[in-house]
Amino acid sequence: MAATTKTDHALERLVFFSDAVFAIAITLLVIEIHAPHLPHGAAEVAYWQALAQLWPNIVGYVISFGVIGLFWMGHHRAFALSARYSSKVLGWNLGLLGTIGFMPFATAFLSSNMNAQAPSVFYCLTMLLAAFFNWRVVRVATGPDMVEPGASADAIAYVRARSFSVLLGSATAVVLGFVLPQMAQAGLVTIPLWLKLLRGGAARKEARRT
Amino acid sequence: MAATTKTDHALERLVFFSDAVFAIAITLLVIEIHAPHLPHGAAEVAYWQALAQLWPNIVGYVISFGVIGLFWMGHHRAFALSARYSSKVLGWNLGLLGTIGFMPFATAFLSSNMNAQAPSVFYCLTMLLAAFFNWRVVRVATGPDMVEPGASADAIAYVRARSFSVLLGSATAVVLGFVLPQMAQAGLVTIPLWLKLLRGGAARKEARRT
Amino acid sequence: MAATTKTDHALERLVFFSDAVFAIAITLLVIEIHAPHLPHGAAEVAYWQALAQLWPNIVGYVISFGVIGLFWMGHHRAFALSARYSSKVLGWNLGLLGTIGFMPFATAFLSSNMNAQAPSVFYCLTMLLAAFFNWRVVRVATGPDMVEPGASADAIAYVRARSFSVLLGSATAVVLGFVLPQMAQAGLVTIPLWLKLLRGGAARKEARRT
Amino acid sequence: MAATTKTDHALERLVFFSDAVFAIAITLLVIEIHAPHLPHGAAEVAYWQALAQLWPNIVGYVISFGVIGLFWMGHHRAFALSARYSSKVLGWNLGLLGTIGFMPFATAFLSSNMNAQAPSVFYCLTMLLAAFFNWRVVRVATGPDMVEPGASADAIAYVRARSFSVLLGSATAVVLGFVLPQMAQAGLVTIPLWLKLLRGGAARKEARRT
């Protein structure tokens, strides 16, 4: 087996391990929603009411599923541009996975205490930490140590801008959490705006240069 | 690495991530069955009675294992016809995985409240949502953006008809849930019938055309 | 992509999905051992006593880890002889995975009720069911529909005899469970004996034939 | 399919299974941190206090995530030097995975009983057991039965010295656990020292020989 194949294999194993952690964290979210058990012979409406009381948990499940899915997609996109393995990415990646693995706790804390500010801010801070690690991972995965030689500069710039806009969107969510705790996660909606802004700035810079 | 290889790799990673979520959701089902703990020196028959009381949970485990297995097999069959990755499938696939990941909750709610209508209808609605996302995923995975050029038209038609018959079977289960809650999941038994109907209609249309 | 490659890919995905379920079931075993929480300032010896009381759970963990590991190794060995995918294996394999996924419950029931006969017999019956599905999976995976053309007849015979001896060993454990419940799992120790017996019989038959 | 390809496939499946167990164990750590649920209308500061009370659990999560990550990296590094599969590694590897899978329990026991010596010593003993199995796995994976023919002697020596220094670091943690229970895990910080010592000794021996 050639040395390059071995290196590719190390990259593959890292990606695989990360995928597994993302998949487990995303699926563990459901464990925090406890099925209500009603006494035998309860009225049908009581069951629907019991479900309605779980509404915050179900909303929390959907939001966190989306958030973890978002980070997985970013990871996916960045490593699609990598061809070589570098141990420099290991620490940042482990930090990212550790924060993603912590999301089920942050979600449960949020869902069990809707209407309060602290759990919402805490959730957004967790997201911000994940976004920070993600941004570092993307930098290294698309940097000189790991990037595929033939990867287009534009694809790299896009992936990097995207990871930075996730960081800005998470920071927006934290700030929003202090003002409008119930709408904090809506801060993520600003991600495309940040991305447009960053890409626009880059395009202008590019235009000036040429 | 050629561009096509990279694209294949993205497809592989998507399939892998989906498989992991299916596998985790299917295995987490067991967590909702709590082992009874009897006082030291209890009569042997008391243990078997304790197990018998868990009958709904064990039945729920078997049904949901079958249901998730069914969706996994459909996913498996559809992506066996795909050769290219397209980001168009991501959203639908995440929706499917999110609904599959939610099945352990729906199962626990059903098992803890047998004989009631609401949990049974809720379970079937979850199944219907999964069937809807599954149908969309299958359409995209076997559509122009992703399908393998050499895939036989008949194989594609079969996989699509199958995914639509799962949707119809789940809808039948929902309707049945309102009438005969305890037999609702039996609605899935109609899937082969719907498939035969759909395939028969397609064959007749085909025959008329030629 | 050639048709054979596609078929190999379907086989790979099946193996992967099975591996994931084995890995998750084996790791979920630990969830059933609840960490004792002692009051602040408790004597050091009280902590060790708390651990000692968990002895049945830890023993159960080790046994079930071994049992699931054993089944995984058998699966591993059988599919190493397969080269083609066949849908005939799907049902049996799903049955096997469903039973393996059920092991954490059987283990918890056993560990919480040591010294009783019923949980021990129930555990062994679960093992017997897994052994039955496993035997069917091995038959199909090494049968005409899936086997690699170049696989040695001896390797096939060995893998099949091994899967049958696991079935006999599990049946021995069930029988033992009725007589000596605390030693039931020790019935698995008879697996190598059954294997020797089966292999010896096959060798004698072979010798007579030539 | 040639025999070597088959062997590689067996190695790949073993590595995959191990990765999955590592990933699940590392992600299950979060399950042991239970989200506090405060009464509606509680003061904001009460939420932060509730989080602060979970401090030991969060620290435990971070430490164990690091420890499992460390073992995963060692496994990764060793198998990057293997090219052939050997059944000799199976038993040791299963022992390693079983101990890693047990870490969530040891972590929960430690986090729930900070300030006590026994849980800290128990945690370090678990780590020591993992380090022992890991050392054996690394010996076999880089030994004559499995090693890639072209692997550099220095890379092998490094990986082996590293696995032995993890063993020594864990032993240091156990000893430290008896003296300074709250700092026991800090014993792992000695790993690089042991590694330097071992590598220095090897270099001197090498120098003397030439």
Can you count the beta strands of chain A?
0
Question: H/E element string of chain A?
Answer: HHHHHHH
Helix content of chain A: over 70%
Oligomer: homotetramer
Biggest beta sheet summary of chain A? none
- Radius of gyration of chain A, in Å, reads 20 Å
Give the number of helices of chain A.
Answer: 7
Q: What is the terminal-to-terminal distance of chain A?
A: 45 Å
Q: Indicate how many domains the architecture of chain A comprises.
A: 1
Shape of chain A: globular
Task: Indicate the structural class of chain A.
Answer: mainly alpha
Unreliable spans of chain A are 1-5
Query: What share of the residues of chain A does DSSP label as strand, in percent?
Result: under 5%
Q: What value does the average pLDDT of chain A take?
A: 87
The most extensive interface, with participating residues per chain, is: A-B, 37 and 34 residues
Can you walk me through this structure?
The structure is a homotetramer of 210-residue chains. Chain A is mainly alpha-helical and 210 residues long. Chain A has one domain. Helices cover 75% and strands 0% of the residues of chain A. Chain A has helices at residues 3-28, 44-53, 55-79, 88-112, 117-141, 153-179, 191-209. In chain A, helix 5 (117-141) runs antiparallel to helix 6. Chain A starts with a helix and ends with a helix. Residues 1-5 of chain A have low confidence and may be disordered. Chains A and B meet through helix 1, helix 2 and helix 3 of A and helix 1, helix 4 and helix 5 of B.
